[in-house]
UniProtKB/TrEMBL annotation:
High-level lineage: Bacteria, Pseudomonadati, Pseudomonadota, Gammaproteobacteria, Vibrionales
Key words of the record: Kinase, Transferase
Protein name: Thymidylate kinase
GO molecular function, a single term: kinase activity
Length: 76
């Protein structure tokens, strides 16, 4: 989902957690846990998962959605 779509879900209290984790390729991705279960990734308008070069950049995107706290997943 795009940043705008995720902000909408957050405003309606449908997202309960923000998570930054290592990407399969390189860098970091941002995912959000939906209140009904499952993870929703941050994507661009074409539906491709967004990848960031460092944890801080990825974390900033979770803050943009509205979260005050972000869980950082270990690489292992």
């Amino acid at each position: 989902m795009t940043l705008t779509e995720l902000k909408h879900l957050y405003a309606h209290q449908d997202l309960v957690e923000a998570l930054v984790e290592p990407s399969i390729n390189s860098g970091y991705i941002v995912e959000f846990r939906h209140r009904r279960g499952g993870l929703v990734p941050l994507t661009d308008i074409c539906g491709s998962e967004q990848c960031y070069g460092d944890v801080d950049s990825a974390t900033q995107q979770a803050f943009e959605v509205g979260f005050q706290q972000v869980r950082i997943a270990d690489e292992y």
